[in-house]
Amino acid sequence: MRSHRWRASLLVGLIVGVLVLTPLAAGRAEPPGGDVRNPEDFRPQGSGFCFERTLVLGGLVITGGRCFTFYLVRTDAGSFLGFGPPGPPIVTPGQIIRLGTPAGAQIRSRMLHLVHLPAAVTTLPVNAVQFVAVRVGVGGERRLIFTIPNGERSLEVGFAQR
């Protein structure tokens, strides 16, 4: 009889704990990525963005105070978001350049950073590069979300800021 009381009181304690902690957890949820722009963290410039703070994704650290234009790069190794030099896009918007061509090799050599994307870019053939207009939004405290168009579904990559 005592074991049943002990189990019942443990169960009641767990239920009360869950009911008390659930509203606290819901209050800390982050807004969906790409909805809010925060001009203190980055500023759009032409076709690219300038970032005041350092961006961090895993082992990749991109120093702040720099500007970039963005490209989709798809190789046999996967799909990547390429950080290209600031200014007008190297690739005309809408144009797809094959990496095996001299122009494609030159573009690939001008990429400052390549960030592996979590899914394949279905709108781009393998071994090709294309200019992409990313959307950058605040995803939480000191976090930026890059939204990359990918056909019907967009891809999101989150960067921490220092």
Attribute tags:
162 residues; alpha+beta; seven-stranded antiparallel β-sheet; five-stranded antiparallel β-sheet; 2 helices; 22% helix; 38% strand
In words, what does this structure look like?
The chain has 162 residues and is α+β, with helices and mostly antiparallel strands. 22% of the residues lie in helices and 38% in strands. It is built from 2 helices and 12 strands, in the order H-E-E-E-E-E-E-E-H-E-E-E-E-E. The strands form 2 sheets. Strands 1, 2, 5, 6, 7, 8 and 9 form a 7-stranded antiparallel beta sheet that branches. The protein has a 5-stranded antiparallel beta sheet with strand order 4-3-12-11-10, with no helix packed on it. A hairpin with a 2-residue loop joins strand 1 and strand 2 (48-51). It is globular, with a radius of gyration of 22 Å. The N and C termini lie far apart (57 Å). Mean pLDDT is 75; it is low at 16-41.
Please give the structural blueprint.
Blueprint: H1 2-27, E1 42-45, E2 48-51, E3 55-57, E4 60-62, E5 66-75, E6 78-84, E7 96-98, H2 102-110, E8 113-116, E9 128-131, E10 135-140, E11 143-148, E12 155-161
Antiparallel strand pairs: 1-2, 2-5, 3-4, 3-12, 5-6, 5-9, 6-8, 7-9, 10-11, 11-12
